[in-house]
Amino acid sequence: MSGRRLDLARIEAALRELQRRFAEINAGLAAPREPPDEEVVRNLVAGYAVVDRIAAAEVELFTYGGSQHLLELNTLVLCGEDPRRRAEFEPHRKATEAWFYDAAGGNIGGLVDWYQRHANEPPFERAAGVYVRMLSEPQLFIEGNHRTGALVMSQILLRAGLPPFVVSLANAKGYFDPSTVIRGKRKNGYALLFELPRIKRRFARFLRAQSDPRFLLEPATDAVA
Predict the structure, then answer these.
(1) What is the pTM of this model?
(2) How many domains does one find in the chain?
């Protein structure tokens, strides 16, 4: 771990610019999307703050002990930090947890196994592979896979000393259009053997090309006496 931390203010600014100008993005997408509202942006910023903390603590998400952090990131993007909202969300959270552990062909056990088999790949390839497996059918969570996936990719990259992935005005089409394609694929047969690895390689190139160091704080320097 490099010790680099996230510039949360800059991340929030990028997300709010995307929110303000989302109509421009939607006009060019292969499949138009709902614009992010205030709750979506606020919850994502809270999610990046958690990514920052757990990366600094050198938490490894892809162990069986790390799975609760993944569930918490998903809960955050869907209902945020407000205790009353989280209490209302509790039945959905329990259903999500059951799906997360038990869904045939798409549960966390399969994702952990995949990650451990690919642990020696470069971080952009690992981040892309995790995202592809989270979004392809059956998805890892009942809902919120895109937003949770962006946070999970960011944690993988940050632990490697690289900038997080933040969807922005500049990269939105390159993120949303492949995501739509991934959602239409299943983790079996021809797609598993040929299509998903090809999509993963393309998405890794996208992540590498748009990596933005401005989303990282400058490392602290020791004062000279």
Answers:
(1) 0.94
(2) 1
